[in-house]
Specification:
about 375 residues; Rossmann fold; 2 domains; eight-stranded mixed β-sheet
Length: about 375
Amino acid sequence: MASLKVAHLSPHRDPFEPRTFFEAMSGAAAGLETLVIAPHDRDETREGVRILGIPRYRNRLERVTVTCWRCVRRAHAERPDIYHLHEPDLIPWGLVLRLVGKRVLYDVHEDYAAAAIVRPWLPNGARRVVAALVGAVSFVARKAFTIVIAESYYARLFPGGVEVLNYARLEEYAGLQAIERQPSKHIRALYTGSVTDSRGARHHARLLEHLPADAEVLLIGQCAIPALRAELEAKAAADSRLVLHLAPSWLPRDIIAARYAEHWTCGLAIFPDTPHYREKELTKFFEYMAAGLPVVCSDFPVWRDLVVGNNVGLVVNPEDRAEAAAALLWLHEHPAEAVEMGRRGRELVLSRYNWDTQADRLGTLYREMCAARS
């Protein structure tokens, strides 16, 4: 095991993006030599993982061409035993690596075909075409590579893919679990993460139409869509109950964690119904649970099983604003029940929904890949 070298290739994402970096750290902790090649301004080592920086791309065309080539070139110079690909952009390069006899693992972070349907930067007429192309490329990938999937339902697209589910490390949750949770004096609802229409930005803002005058909804995270950001800022200017903390790129985790420490009624995830999110176990669910917050989310079957099945929150029809607001009112009027939901959520994060339950699967898979080649 100690002699294995694994290169994580991620030309799109930050090298410290949680899933990629957690996988690399877990490998390093298990005795592997691990490196991450990703856009970064320098080479460095963190948590036993070598970070090899490549220039950041200036546009999407450069990302899928020059940046991918730079990423593969730096990885190839390291002569790793396994090339661990984290982007569909790398699939053509992975096929080249396979043709010359290299071991390649493809890590499916998302259902990219379904995601194409809700990408705001794609023209409406192009979305289904892109989704079809992504589906075709994914078919090739599952035939050519060893596959790891981040969500259980991706197994429909990648039969035989090994589940390494997208949970966070307990260390990442430690600060959230230390928060002493008490009911807020008035309704305060929190949303953290990317702020987009497909992630419920408008749905969350419109909740205020049915909430009392002293209620508050906070949206904190990245909003990279100028038109949506302008719309939300106009709403916030007209109604001080809508509070925004938006940035054009990722906000540091410590800034978001500081807001978690405030008193809140619940964490929000009221998303419109789209194939991309309908079956995803959102990372934010587990962050809310770790922070001791009840979850209020859309009534999709997978989400219902997680939230209602574990009694850690409430589900609502995302298109019925009055029903969604009523859920927040119920939690506010039943503080003992709300606190108990938060307590159960914390227990489940400690026992089940954490990265420690997943990390060993990846190390086993690396060993099997090398043993099969030998």
